[in-house]
Design brief:
The complex is a heterodimer of chains A (550) and B (650). Chain A has helices at 3-6, 87-100, 130-138, 171-180, 216-223, 240-248, 272-287, 293-303, 305-324, 340-352, 359-372, 377-380, 397-411, 420-431, 443-448, 451-454, 458-462, 465-471, 496-499, 507-549; strands spanning 11-19, 22-31, 35-40, 48-52, 56-64, 67-74, 79-85, 144-147, 163-166, 188-193, 198-202, 232-236, 262-266, 329-333. Chain A is of the alpha+beta class and 550 residues long. Chain A has three domains: 3-103, PH-domain like; 130-504, no CATH class; 510-543. In chain A, helix 7 (272-287) packs antiparallel against helix 8 (293-303), helix 9 packs across helix 10 and helix 9 (305-324) packs across helix 13 (397-411). Chain B has 650 residues and is α/β, with parallel strands linked by helices. In chain B, 39% of the residues lie in helices and 12% in strands. The model of chain B is unreliable at 545-650 (pLDDT under 50). The chains are: A alpha+beta (550), B alpha/beta (650).
């Protein structure tokens, strides 16, 4: 298929661009296969706006006489308005944008066409390999092994080719366990807590069904992670009620009788359309232009977004608490183990593991606990808050995770190497990107799409010093401790950087950020100067002494 | 009383056993057993209510709510003791004479001269001079010199030059409590001014020639503008109801060239109830997000804050952008008017956003113009219906602005919190009584100390590290977003959940940056010293003498700077919503049990309510959560000897 077929009108002049907090700009609009490009005609200060078609969530058109107006709502939550003279042009452009922003073939997406303009220092596709992770683990414990059981994605389609499992469990047993778990997602290692040797594992629900099936190998596998005489915790991310209902569909939960050393805790984390609706309501509240404070607060409340944040954080704190405080191992799962499970396991690691609070460590966490663990990014991030179509698979699961990280970052502003911008960047790229990183729903699909060969990794771009400097938190001081966030409502706030990003003036806050950076930079400069002088003095004194001795 | 248990609000499982003491000025709880004495001190004047709850098997619970939003829950074993404590506290918390208040016994060990200096720190005559008055349009009037015209006004009042004593007195007779229009702020760039008064006694048809002349004089004092805004800060309905009582608002037809405007800020009773409702939300034990947001909305608190701010923004705009003078009033002109005038001044003039300027602002718009501190904040036992968080709302408004303009204010959040605290503490004489007249009669300045001097002395603690006098945000008028940006107004947990340290960010950016700046300063000094020494050394090497002594110097220097380097790690807190962890085995978690204890080490502090350092540290620290380097102390931290596991409750 040629993109040109979809572009009915490639160019329109005298278009006016409206954005909140900016004066309207007049210029030329161009459509290409992957971008909507607007450039102002002013020669002196030409301004260009490049918008990926895949970033467009929905489009509305309106006419007043022959002046057409297109309102473009983006997945990054921005809303722009284009006034296009000429009804036909406007209709053509609108339908072209609509077609181009809803391409259904992945291989037509921009990452397959994008050619980087920067020098590739490090191939991001090879930056975070499971072998490296396992090597780190092997240096502290020998109780685990790397299993290649899923090499051809034959056992579990949503798992990566290699996984870390207890050493005492062989591949044969794993195969049996896989039959007993939803989507074959058998329990694998998620995190090893060096401080006390406790672990966090994740899986999907066991297929106990109504007649209480059991699987000896499954029991053996998870018991293999327990210390003698110790108990473990199973954190089920569904309410007891939901988990019980799942039995009717063949799913279920671990019965006490068969897992006597485990204590099961149910934490209700919502999924799918409930989350998607929550996002839609929240964004609607944030865009509400009414003058009424009560309405704002009640809409914020009704969206339930912060309730979801609180639930997810609480479950993650609980998992972390079990590991660090109770000295117990933990198994986390919900139904499929691809959504709420990953929110909990990844947030718990941020709380527990200082490495995850560095830029590199956080990237590694996203790769391990989201991409390799099989979070279906393509399904979940197909649409954002302005979607009209009610498709079943969209859900802002990853955005909720990033929001939770932001909440912890806000409570511990000096403990993270990255800043808020880093999280916002990840949100943007998960929904629309020139990089292939978030395409596909699991490693299996990515392998089939040959993404590493055909597209550029986000990490190749981010991990260059030019980009990294934008994402570094000037306040960062390595903090080797476990950080316990507060989950009280008073401590949780709306993530303005994402949700009010386009409808609040940010100039003064940006200035504060700059001021902060310059205070710290000046301090570092002085430190360097003082150290240099000290050295110089020391040298001169030694010289002097030597001369004296001579 | 012995064997009293102090409960923690966030977790019923945590309680400290200790002894309760009542002194003439404080309630003191001293915890048993611990090596470092953990103490909680509460000034009687901070006590807002005491509630005796139903006796349980473990004892008799006593709930003390404080005006600085601290809530203390005690369980006293014997019902009789509890009753005695209750009765004593009720009496102690409600003094009937000013002389019973703490400021008359508080002695910060300053001599007479220092005290007098302290009172001179804020000088309103100087302030009006700074604004540019008296000048060709404005003069000081001595018409109120013996409080003869208006007993709630100051003796020195600034009025238009063309307003004769006859006009002033005439106008005062037509205004509630004789609070005639007087100057609050003058903008010397364009001659526009903000004046304030009470409502006119217009009823349905009454008019007063002198009052009309007075308003005209105000308008004429701003020759660049041909009209005057008259802003009534009440909801229209309230103002209309007042007409039936012979009061009301200005009729545009009777006054030449005024534009009349209502701005609906609710009255003190609505505000009192609103705060009450919001505090109930803050006090909820493990509320859900919905409980909290719904309660916040239902309290209406943020709506009221926004109304006040919008009024201030309107006036600042009129003065700065339109160059039009404004007369502001409400009913008596001492609550809403004070709020709105001071917000507008703060927006207009960068001086009021400095530490000194902010003190001056409170002195000008609140203290001198007879804001009834005693009645509003219940310093003496009085009518509970007179109590209302009027200045609290202003202080919160300032905080909301600080959130929107992080570089615009010289002071930080702590400064606001401490001012709020001392408005209620009665430890300093500044906010006693209801008017200047009463304060002079009581000889406050001779018998008590000034808060401003105390804050000024400790100003290093109150600095906003992001403030720079030459920064663009510190120049000119602040222009916050007006409606519909409701989301700009946020719940202030730093104030209303001030004592629940567990709810706040565990690392403070402000403290961190302050420490960095302090270190920067030391580095600058050291750099100077090093440069000098280098020069000397270069000289001396030529002369080849006395190298050794310098080497010793240098090692001293190095020692000093390493201690400066250990500034980063603010203590963290282990705290979790234990309610949400139903499965915790009870045998474990002793660490947390001992973690949250209300204490304050007051023995070494002469200022028992607010030792700034312990206030800023989020005290609770888990042994396992300690920086392995052991360098987790800010240079300014003085709580080293306090236990690792204590939360500091001022």
């Amino acid at each position: 298929m040629e993109f040109a077929e979809l572009i009915k009108t490639p160019r329109a002049d005298n278009v006016a661009l409206h954005r909140p907090f900016y004066p309207a700009v007049e210029g030329t609009l161009c459509l290409t296969g992957h971008h909507l490009i607007f450039s102002s005609r002013r020669q002196d200060n030409a301004e260009e706006l490049w918008l990926l078609h895949s970033n467009i969530d929905s489009i509305e058109k309106r006419f007043v006489g022959s002046l057409g107006t297109i309102i473009i709502k983006c997945k990054d939550l921005r809303i722009i308005q284009l006034d296009i003279p000429g009804m036909e042009e406007c209709l053509n452009i609108a339908s072209s944008i609509e077609a181009l922003s809803t391409l259904d073939s992945v291989t037509l997406m921009y990452p397959f066409f994008y050619r980087p303009m920067f020098e590739i220092v490090e191939d991001g596709w090879r930056s975070f390999l499971p072998d490296q992770e396992f090597e780190l683990l092997s240096s502290v414990t020998d109780e685990w092994r790397l299993s290649c059981i899923n090499k051809e994605f034959s056992v579990c389609p949503s798992y990566p080719p290699v996984v870390i499992v207890p050493k005492s469990i062989d591949d044969e047993a794993l195969r049996k366990v896989a039959m007993f778990r939803h989507g074959s997602r058998f329990p694998v290692l998620s995190y090893y807590h060096k401080k006390n040797g406790m672990v966090m594992m994740r899986s999907s629900q066991p297929l106990t069904g109504t007649n209480g099936r059991r699987c000896k190998e499954d029991e053996k596998l998870i018991n293999a992670t327990l210390r003698p005489g110790k108990r473990g915790y199973i954190i089920d991310t569904r309410s007891l009620n939901v988990a019980q209902q799942a039995r009717a569909k063949g799913g279920g939960f671990e019965q006490e009788a068969h897992y006597p050393q485990w204590r099961r805790i149910h934490k209700c984390i919502e999924r799918f359309n409930i989350l998607q609706e929550s996002l839609i309501k929240l964004v609607e509240a944030c865009n509400d232009q009414s003058h009424n404070m009560d309405r704002w607060l009640s809409k914020l409340e009704a969206s339930n977004w912060l309730t979801h944040i609180k639930e997810i954080l609480t479950a993650a704190c609980l998992a972390a608490q079990c590991i660090d405080r109770e000295g117990a191992s933990v198994l986390v799962h919900g139904t499929e183990g691809t959504d709420s499970t990953l929110q909990v396991t990844s947030l718990a690691q941020i709380i527990l593991d200082p490495r995850c609070r560095t830029i590199r460590g956080f990237e590694s966490l996203v790769v391990r606990e989201w991409l390799q663990a099989g979070h279906p990014f393509q399904q979940r991030c197909a649409q954002s808050a302005y979607s009209n179509s009610k498709q079943k698979w969209e859900a802002p699961v990853f955005l909720l995770f990033l929001d939770c990280v932001w909440q912890i970052l806000r409570q511990f502003p000096c403990s993270f190497e990255f800043n808020e911008q880093f999280l916002i960047m990840l949100f943007e790229h998960a929904y629309a990107s020139q990089f292939g990183t978030f395409l596909g729903n699991n490693e299996n699909e990515r392998f089939k799409l040959k993404l590493p060969q055909k597209t550029m990794s986000l990490w190749s771009w981010v991990n260059r010093s030019e980009e990294l400097s934008k994402f570094q938190n000037p306040l960062f001081e390595a903090n080797s401790l476990v950080i316990w966030p507060s989950v009280a409502p008073q401590s949780l706030q709306l993530w303005e950087g994402v949700f009010l990003r386009w409808n609040r003036p940010s100039k003064f806050l940006d200035e504060a950020q700059e001021e902060m950076i310059s205070i710290i930079r000046y301090n570092k400069e002085l430190q360097a100067k003082v150290n240099a002088l000290r050295r110089q003095l020391a040298e001169m004194e030694t010289d002097g002494r030597m001369q004296e001795n001579l | 009383v012995e064997n009293v248990r102090l409960l923690d609000r966030l977790s019923s499982r945590k309680a400290a056993l200790g002894t309760l003491y009542l002194t003439a000025t404080h309630v003191i709880f001293v915890e048993n057993g611990s090596e470092a004495r953990k103490e909680t001190w509460v000034l009687h004047s901070q006590i807002s209510s005491i509630e005796k709850q139903a006796t349980t098997a473990t004892g008799c619970p006593l709930l003390i709510r404080c005006k600085n939003f601290q809530v203390i829950q005690l369980v006293i074993p014997q019902e009789r003791d509890c009753h005695d404590v209750y009765i004593s506290l009720i009496r102690l918390a409600r003094p009937v004479k000013y002389e019973e208040l703490y400021c008359f016994s508080f002695n910060p060990k300053l001599d007479k001269e220092e005290r007098e200096q302290g009172w001179k720190l804020v000088d309103l005559t100087e302030e009006y001079n700074r604004m540019g008055v008296p000048n060709n349009y404005w003069q000081i009037s001595d018409v109120n010199r013996d409080y003869g015209v208006c007993d709630s006004y100051p003796t020195e009042v600034y009025v238009p030059k063309s307003a004769t004593a006859h006009i002033i007195v005439g106008s005062s007779k037509f205004r509630s409590r004789r609070r005639f229009p007087a100057l609050s702020y003058y903008c010397k760039d364009n001659n526009a001014s903000i004046c304030r008064s009470s409502q006119p006694l217009s009823g349905f048809s009454a008019r007063c020639l002198e009052d009309e002349q007075m308003l005209q004089a105000i308008r004429k004092a701003n020759p660049g503008s041909d009209f005057l805004y008259v802003v009534d800060t009440r909801p229209k309905l309230n103002a209309m109801a007042n007409r039936a009582a012979g009061k009301g608002y200005e009729n545009e037809d009777n006054y030449s060239n005024i534009k009349f405007q209502f701005i609906g800020i609710e009255n003190i009773h609505v505000m009192r109830n609103s705060l009450q409702k919001m505090l109930e939300v803050c006090e909820l034990k493990s509320p859900s997000m919905s409980d909290f947001l719904w309660g916040l909305e239902n309290s209406g608190w943020l709506k009221h804050i926004k109304a006040i701010m919008d009024a201030g923004i309107f006036i600042a705009k009129a003065v700065a952008e339109e160059g039009v003078s404004v007369l502001v009033h409400c009913s008596d002109g001492w609550d809403r008017t004070a709020q709105v005038c001071s917000v507008a001044s703060l927006l207009l003039d960068p001086y009021y956003r400095t530490m000194k300027g902010f003190m001056v602002l409170i002195e000008k718009d609140w203290v001198s113009f007879g804001h009834k501190f005693n009645h509003r904040y219940g310093n003496l036992d009085g009518d509970p219906k007179e109590i209302s968080p009027v200045i609290d709302q202003f202080i919160e408004g300032v905080w909301q602005l600080m959130e929107q303009f992080p570089c615009a204010f010289e002071f930080n959040e702590r400064f606001l919190i401490h001012i709020q605290h001392h408005i209620y503490s009665c430890q300093f004489g500044n906010f006693l009584c209801n008017s200047q007249k009463e304060r002079r009669e009581l000889k406050i300045q001779e018998r008590t100390y000034s808060l401003w001097a105390h804050l000024w002395k400790n100003r290093a603690d109150y600095l906003n590290p992001l403030y720079r006098p030459d920064h663009s945000q510190t120049q000119g008028t602040l222009r916050p977003q007006m409606a519909p940006c409701n989301f700009l107004y946020k719940f202030w947990s730093g104030m209303y959940n001030r004592f629940e340290k567990g709810l706040h960010p565990r690392q403070s950016v402000t403290d961190y940056l302050m420490a960095v700046k302090e270190e920067t300063q030391q580095l600058e000094e050291e750099l100077e010293v090093l440069r000098e020494r280098l020069m000397n050394l270069q000289k001396s090497q030529i002369n080849d003498n006395k190298v050794k002594s310098k080497r010793q110097d240098r090692s001293k220097e190095l020692g000093l700077s390493t201690s400066n380097n250990s500034l980063a790690n603010t203590p963290q807190e282990y705290s979790n919503d234990l309610k949400s962890f139903p499965s915790r085995s009870p045998s474990q978690g002793d660490e947390e049990d001992s973690a949250l204890i209300l204490t304050q080490d007051n023995l070494k502090s002469s200022d028992p309510d607010l030792s700034a350092n312990s206030d800023q540290e989020s005290g609770v620290e888990d042994l396992s959560c300690r920086s392995p380097s052991g360098g987790g102390c800010l240079p300014s931290e003085d709580s080293g000897k306090d236990s690792d596991e204590a939360v500091f409750l001022a």
